[in-house]
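fyi for ur records
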Amino acid sequence: MTMAEPLTADQRLMLGLLSFDALLLALLELFFLPLRVGSLGQVPLPVTVLVGAVATPWLVLTAAKLVRPGLSWVPLAVWVVVIFGVGLTGPGGDLVLVQDWRAILLLGAGALPAALVLGGGLGRAAGARGRRRG
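which gave:
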Protein backbone atom coordinates (compact mmCIF):
# COMPACT_ATOMS: atom_id res chain seq x y z
CA MET A 1 0.00 0.00 0.00
CA THR A 2 1.41 3.37 -0.99
CA MET A 3 1.01 6.61 0.87
CA ALA A 4 -0.54 9.54 -0.95
CA GLU A 5 1.66 12.52 -1.67
CA PRO A 6 1.36 15.32 0.88
CA LEU A 7 -0.82 18.25 -0.10
CA THR A 8 0.86 21.31 -1.54
CA ALA A 9 0.35 24.70 0.06
CA ASP A 10 -2.09 25.63 -2.72
CA GLN A 11 -4.10 22.45 -2.18
CA ARG A 12 -4.27 23.03 1.58
CA LEU A 13 -5.39 26.61 0.99
CA MET A 14 -8.05 25.49 -1.49
CA LEU A 15 -9.35 22.80 0.88
CA GLY A 16 -9.52 25.37 3.67
CA LEU A 17 -11.41 27.82 1.46
CA LEU A 18 -13.86 25.17 0.30
CA SER A 19 -14.44 24.10 3.91
CA PHE A 20 -15.00 27.73 4.93
CA ASP A 21 -17.47 28.09 2.02
CA ALA A 22 -19.32 24.99 3.25
CA LEU A 23 -19.48 26.48 6.74
CA LEU A 24 -20.86 29.81 5.49
CA LEU A 25 -23.36 28.15 3.18
CA ALA A 26 -24.64 25.88 5.93
CA LEU A 27 -25.11 28.85 8.26
CA LEU A 28 -26.96 30.89 5.65
CA GLU A 29 -29.11 27.93 4.67
CA LEU A 30 -30.04 27.35 8.31
CA PHE A 31 -30.81 30.95 9.15
CA PHE A 32 -32.92 31.59 6.04
CA LEU A 33 -34.72 28.24 6.08
CA PRO A 34 -37.74 29.61 8.03
CA LEU A 35 -38.24 32.35 5.39
CA ARG A 36 -41.92 33.05 4.67
CA VAL A 37 -43.58 35.24 2.06
CA GLY A 38 -47.03 36.59 1.46
CA SER A 39 -49.05 39.46 2.83
CA LEU A 40 -49.22 37.87 6.25
CA GLY A 41 -46.06 35.78 6.00
CA GLN A 42 -48.02 32.57 5.73
CA VAL A 43 -46.35 30.77 2.83
CA PRO A 44 -43.04 29.03 3.60
CA LEU A 45 -40.41 29.65 0.93
CA PRO A 46 -37.40 27.38 1.61
CA VAL A 47 -35.24 28.86 -1.15
CA THR A 48 -32.11 27.83 0.75
CA VAL A 49 -32.94 24.22 -0.05
CA LEU A 50 -32.21 25.01 -3.71
CA VAL A 51 -28.97 26.69 -2.70
CA GLY A 52 -27.95 23.60 -0.75
CA ALA A 53 -28.91 21.28 -3.60
CA VAL A 54 -26.60 23.14 -5.98
CA ALA A 55 -23.79 24.44 -3.78
CA THR A 56 -22.96 21.41 -1.65
CA PRO A 57 -22.38 19.00 -4.57
CA TRP A 58 -20.43 21.74 -6.32
CA LEU A 59 -18.12 22.11 -3.31
CA VAL A 60 -17.52 18.34 -3.25
CA LEU A 61 -16.82 18.27 -6.99
CA THR A 62 -14.49 21.26 -6.77
CA ALA A 63 -12.57 19.65 -3.90
CA ALA A 64 -12.18 16.48 -5.96
CA LYS A 65 -10.86 18.42 -8.95
CA LEU A 66 -8.66 21.03 -7.27
CA VAL A 67 -7.43 19.22 -4.17
CA ARG A 68 -7.72 15.45 -4.50
CA PRO A 69 -10.63 13.02 -4.95
CA GLY A 70 -9.79 11.27 -1.70
CA LEU A 71 -10.39 14.49 0.26
CA SER A 72 -13.57 15.58 -1.47
CA TRP A 73 -15.56 14.44 1.59
CA VAL A 74 -14.26 17.33 3.71
CA PRO A 75 -16.69 20.07 2.50
CA LEU A 76 -19.64 17.68 2.87
CA ALA A 77 -18.55 16.73 6.39
CA VAL A 78 -18.18 20.40 7.36
CA TRP A 79 -21.65 21.15 5.94
CA VAL A 80 -23.28 18.28 7.85
CA VAL A 81 -21.51 19.11 11.13
CA VAL A 82 -22.54 22.77 10.89
CA ILE A 83 -26.14 21.93 9.96
CA PHE A 84 -26.53 19.60 12.93
CA GLY A 85 -24.23 21.44 15.35
CA VAL A 86 -25.65 24.92 14.88
CA GLY A 87 -29.12 23.70 13.95
CA LEU A 88 -29.64 21.72 17.13
CA THR A 89 -27.53 23.74 19.57
CA GLY A 90 -27.77 27.17 17.97
CA PRO A 91 -26.70 30.52 19.32
CA GLY A 92 -27.84 30.95 22.89
CA GLY A 93 -29.15 27.40 22.98
CA ASP A 94 -31.91 28.20 20.47
CA LEU A 95 -33.11 25.51 18.09
CA VAL A 96 -32.32 26.97 14.65
CA LEU A 97 -33.22 23.92 12.56
CA VAL A 98 -36.97 24.24 12.08
CA GLN A 99 -38.97 21.21 13.16
CA ASP A 100 -40.97 20.49 10.01
CA TRP A 101 -40.67 19.30 6.42
CA ARG A 102 -38.24 22.08 5.46
CA ALA A 103 -35.48 20.64 7.65
CA ILE A 104 -35.80 17.21 6.06
CA LEU A 105 -35.86 18.81 2.63
CA LEU A 106 -32.70 20.81 3.39
CA LEU A 107 -30.85 17.75 4.66
CA GLY A 108 -31.93 15.61 1.73
CA ALA A 109 -31.35 18.22 -0.96
CA GLY A 110 -27.95 19.19 0.41
CA ALA A 111 -26.48 15.88 1.51
CA LEU A 112 -27.82 13.35 -1.02
CA PRO A 113 -26.60 14.99 -4.26
CA ALA A 114 -23.27 15.76 -2.58
CA ALA A 115 -22.96 12.14 -1.45
CA LEU A 116 -23.64 10.97 -5.02
CA VAL A 117 -20.94 13.30 -6.35
CA LEU A 118 -18.63 12.13 -3.57
CA GLY A 119 -19.21 8.46 -4.41
CA GLY A 120 -18.50 9.09 -8.08
CA GLY A 121 -15.27 10.92 -7.29
CA LEU A 122 -14.05 8.28 -4.87
CA GLY A 123 -14.97 5.56 -7.37
CA ARG A 124 -12.94 7.27 -10.09
CA ALA A 125 -10.01 7.66 -7.68
CA ALA A 126 -10.15 3.96 -6.75
CA GLY A 127 -10.37 3.00 -10.42
CA ALA A 128 -7.34 5.13 -11.24
CA ARG A 129 -5.36 3.50 -8.43
CA GLY A 130 -6.34 0.05 -9.69
CA ARG A 131 -5.21 0.89 -13.23
CA ARG A 132 -1.83 2.13 -11.96
CA ARG A 133 -1.18 -1.10 -10.05
CA GLY A 134 -2.19 -3.45 -12.83
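Strands lie at 36-37, 43-44. thats all i got for now
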